[in-house]
Specification:
Structural class of chain B: mainly beta
Strand content of chain B: over 45%
Number of strands of chain A: 11
Helix content of chain A: under 10%
Number of helices of chain B: 0
Radius of gyration of chain A: 13 Å
Largest interface: A-B, 26 and 25 residues
Strand content of chain A: over 45%
Distance between the termini of chain B: 36 Å
Shape of chain A: globular
Oligomer: heterodimer
Order of helices and strands of chain A: EEEEEEEEEEE
Radius of gyration of chain B: 13 Å
Shape of chain B: globular
Structural class of chain A: mainly beta
Chain lengths: 110, 115
């Protein structure tokens, strides 16, 4: 079993839709959780991170972690065509190593 | 800051040839990671270094793969001999000594095609 599981999609939604991206993890040692965004033919870039259970909001993006169920979510409100990318969830600890999901490919069409 | 630098950006080679990928981490970063990304398996960690010393190479697929970090500003990932199934995008990333969730930066990647 991979440390982090993520449905690769693809996911296609119209502009303005609310997008929900989800992952599960198995490693209880994870201390923080990240979402990376990767545009086509680019390296992953950090979008958001959170340490604890609960929600963290940044503009149109909300990251949610439920440690009791080992579930990670990213919500995108008012999605835009520029949000079209692959979204990778990851878990990590102070040791520095990150464990990534496979990524979910998102397309937002105008 | 120039960020993590990788070269070449694209590499096309024939099966059996030696391939060398290069990475320059961000100055002052003490950890360096090599990842491989494919559609089927996603982003996989191959090996990582701390202060130029390999810490975990359990992700290296087989003996054909080797990685070195001769100094704090340079690392190589070598595949010899290369095979078509090695075709993937290889990323290098770096992070400082006390890594946190917002400190791992990725390079642009090297797209490798083995014919």
């Amino acid at each position: 079993q991979k440390e982090v599981e993520q449905d690769p999609g693809p996911l296609s939604v119209p502009e303005g839709a609310i997008v929900s991206l989800n992952c599960t993890y198995s490693n209880s040692a994870f201390q923080y959780f990240m979402w990376y965004r990767q545009y086509s033919r680019k390296g992953p870039e950090l979008l958001m991170y959170t340490y604890s259970s609960g929600n963290k909001e940044d503009g149109r993006f909300t990251a949610q972690v439920d440690k009791s169920s080992k579930y990670i979510s990213l919500f995108i409100r008012d999605s835009q065509p520029s949000d079209s990318a692959t979204y990778l969830c990851a878990g990590g600890s102070t040791l520095g190593r990150l464990y990534f999901g496979r990524g979910t490919q998102l397309t937002v069409w105008p | 800051d120039a960020g993590v630098i990788q070269s070449p950006r694209h590499e096309v080679t024939e099966m059996g040839q030696e391939v060398t990928l290069r990475c320059k981490p961000i100055s002052g970063h003490d950890y360096l990671f090599w990842y491989r990304q494919t559609m089927m398996r996603g982003l996989e960690l191959l090996i990582y270094f701390n202060n130029n010393v390999p810490i975990d190479d359990s992700g290296m697929p087989e003996d054909r793969f080797s990685a070195k970090m001769p100094n704090a500003s340079f690392s190589t990932l070598k595949i010899q001999p290369s095979e078509p199934r090695d075709s993937a995008v290889y990323f290098c990333a770096s992070t400082p000594e006390n890594p946190g969730p917002d400190t791992q930066y990725f390079g642009p990647g090297t797209r490798l095609t083995v014919l």
